[in-house]
């Protein structure tokens, strides 16, 4: 059973368009799911949220950071991961790319390096681009 509560949209980590009628708004406290009747209605709501004067949107599909080489600022699982383990004021992705890490046994491991305005993340890559946890957050 879902409960209704007031949505605090003063800090938005990101807006994720799930499909033609649904979208999610990721905030530091939770992910809000919205269902619309039509794609045009969804698009109007997303645009209205992007144009809010009182809130801060950290990630926007229209304004991707130049150094986000893996385009993680529009990846729903990364935005949810940052909202879960990151700062309560939200974090903005500044840089992302793959790298090779040498572990203590001198083995090479591919990792994703994700830099935000407050932390550095070491994330294990996978084939489906769904990320549930970070190997390390510094």
Characterization of this structure:
The chain is of the alpha+beta class and 138 residues long. It has two helices and nine strands. It has helices spanning 39-50, 76-85, and strands spanning 11-12, 14-17, 22-26, 31-35, 56-57, 93-102, 108-116, 120-123, 136-137. The strands form three sheets. Strands 6-7-8-9 form a four-stranded antiparallel sheet, with no helix packed on it. A hairpin with a 5-residue loop joins β6 (93-102) and β7 (108-116). The protein is elongated, with a radius of gyration of 16 Å. It starts with 10 loop residues before the first strand and ends with a strand. The model has no long low-confidence stretch (mean pLDDT 87).
Q: What proportion of the residues form beta strands (DSSP E)?
A: 25-35%
Low-confidence stretches: none
Sketch the major β-sheet. Answer: 4 strands, antiparallel
Classify the helix fraction into a percent range: 10-25%
Average pLDDT reading: 87
Strand arrangement across the biggest beta sheet: 6-7-8-9
Shape: elongated
Q: Could you state the oligomeric state of the chains shown?
A: single chain
Descriptors for this entry?
single chain; 138 residues; alpha+beta; 4-stranded antiparallel β-sheet; 3-stranded antiparallel β-sheet; 2 helices; 9 strands; 16% helix; 31% strand; elongated
Summarize the structure.
This protein is of the alpha+beta class. It is 16% helix and 31% strand.
